[in-house]
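---------- Forwarded message ----------

FYI, see the GNAT family N-acetyltransferase record below. Original note from H. follows.
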Amino acid sequence: MVIKNDKVILRDFIESDIEDRIYWETVETEWQLWDAPWENDEESFDLDSYRKERLEWLTKEKDENRTRWEFQICVNDESRKHIGWCNAYKIDDNFKYTNQDGHCTIGIDIPDLSLRRKGYATASWDLFIQYLSSQGVKDMYTQTWSGNERVIGLIKKVGFEECNREYGFRTARGQLYDGLTFKLNWEEYNDFHQQNKPINLVHV
């Protein structure tokens, strides 16, 4: 599946993405300072296991009509450059991760520093929200921490409102930060979306 607007393309994971992700996990790692940095302190990235798992996943038969919970982000120009990913997971009523039924919660990463602040994250989330809505998702959330000011700006711009704050949630780089959960305000999001071109869903 491909979802695109005039700014970005969201598509399914392909084999060449494996080496991109390994590069972002081992070389171009600045993004890890902002995406739950405490996880990077606790876990090491096993590139061989990652490559094996992804190759196995690619060989499995899949329902093309399934709901996607992750897309890879590419620039919508002649290069079709792969620049990151967006994904969704579930949280429970206490705003904690769960692998059971829960509330849809979205996230995004664009590791390439040269491609930040160019509107790609905003365009990607707009597409992802529209897609999930088309799949019947009514309530959407996102989570971050109080030190991640750049992402907080994006979150508010798209139309999310803070709905829960866990004080002293994590320590990052020697400082204590709050954990933040935001819920999408559909009225504010629709106002934001009107400023963007409609999405185009293409099945490939």
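H. also flagged this: The radius of gyration is 17 Å.
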